[in-house]
Design goal:
alpha+beta, five-stranded mixed beta sheet, two-stranded antiparallel ribbon, 10 helices, 7 strands
């Protein structure tokens, strides 16, 4: 195959990758659409629990500060608390159910209008539940008429209390929802920024490999283009940022295959891969930047090259990764500083996925530089 044809293939392939990246084909979280919604998910168990707790706290306050209406004719605090709790929980749970059903319609409205409609819906539910409570008391024989003398005061009192409490509760839930969205957005932006520092290195390094082989070894250059196409096809077809361990190992081996074409016999790799459960996953491009760091700072500076040891195993529901490479002694300070920055970017990316559950440690032993990574077997942010 002629060099010009190889160049044309490379140009077509690069255009395809570029368009794919611009189109945003790298994985995104499925929850992006939900995170743009104004109102929180009132069907969520934690939201329902928070509403129930707020309602019960309100029942305690009302029981302590008012004793005007005594339905049982006895000044028993516990009985009053029980009755008031049931009444307020009726209102609270009915309100949550209504907002749960109406949420998808309310979120189609502008934010202010959605908030006003939700607030009015809560007040209407308060009036309906209050009216139902009076009729139930009349049917149970606790009151003589469905229009007792305190009928108007009862509705007015409930409406005013509901107006104040619902305003505070909505403000609390919306503030909590906004804080959650802001936290997720910042975490995702941070993670994408860290990924953007890692992925270009991989692309540019691979392009340099092809450029170095185009004139000297056209056949190997063609193989490199095909390997890169397969590699990016795997990356772009993933639906999540977390992929099975075996997929990540396959990506790393393809990358090493490209580097071996460039470095030839100077690069040798010793793999030691243990068994992993099917649930074991890790972020895309976890191994590749670790191997790139080992090659750039360990193998390339050595005239004779060296061997990179890669060991992966599962222990105590954790994924352990150990990368060992020879450490050149020349220009030690400059290389150590550059390598520390590279590893720090990788460490921050792991923390963006897993928080403090992920660790990355480095050490030196007998002229070998050792990077040890520990990740949860599954979990993290998609």
């Amino acid at each position: 195959m002629e060099i010009s044809e190889i160049k044309n293939r490379a140009h077509v392939w690069l255009n395809t990758v570029s368009k794919s990246l611009e189109a945003g084909l790298f994985p995104k979280a499925d929850a992006d659409a939900q995170e743009t919604e104004f109102l929180p998910d009132f069907c969520n168990g934690w939201v329902i629990l928070n509403v129930a707790i707020i309602a019960e706290m309100l029942a305690f306050v009302i029981t302590l500060v008012t004793r005007r209406i005594s339905l049982w004719g006895a000044e028993n605090l516990l009985i009053d608390l029980f009755i008031i709790s049931i009444f307020i929980q009726w209102i609270a749970l009915a309100s949550v159910a209504a907002l749960c059903l109406a949420r998808k319609y309310l979120n189609r409205l502008p934010n202010i209008r959605a908030l006003i409609m939700a607030y009015l819906l809560l007040l209407c539910i308060t009036i309906l539940v209050s009216e139902m409570a009076i009729w139930l008391l009349w049917l149970a024989g606790r009151i003589d008429t469905p229009r007792p003398e305190w009928y108007g005061y009862f509705h007015l009192q409930n409406l005013l209390v509901s107006a104040i409490v619902n305003a505070l509760a909505l403000r609390y839930l919306l503030a909590k929802h906004e804080l959650k969205l802001r936290t997720l957005s910042e975490a995702r932006a941070k993670m994408q920024a860290l990924q953007s520092r890692i992925r270009p290195h991989f692309v540019f390094n691979s392009l340099n490999i092809i450029a170095s082989l185009t004139r000297s070894e056209p056949a190997k250059a063609e193989t490199s283009i095909e390997d890169m196409a397969d590699l990016f096809r795997m990356m772009l077809n993933e639906n999540e940022n977390l992929v099975p361990v075996k997929n990540e190992i396959e990506v790393a081996k393809k990358y090493l295959g490209l580097e071996m074409l460039r470095l030839d016999s100077r690069l040798r790799v010793d793999w030691d891969i243990g068994k992993f459960p099917r649930k074991a996953v890790m972020p895309v491009l976890t191994l590749q930047p670790l191997l790139e760091n080992a090659i750039h700072h360990g193998i390339e500076p050595l005239p004779r090259g060296g061997t990179i040891g890669v060991k992966l195993w599962e222990e105590n529901d954790k994924i352990h990764i150990r990368v060992v490479n020879p450490f050149p002694q020349t220009k030690l300070r400059q290389r150590t500083t550059t390598q520390s920055k590279s590893l720090e970017n990788i460490r921050r990316r792991f923390q963006a996925h897993y928080g403090e559950a992920a660790t990355l440690h480095t050490s030196e032993e007998n002229g070998q530089f050792i990077v040890t990574v520990v990740l949860p077997t599954r979990g993290g942010k998609p």
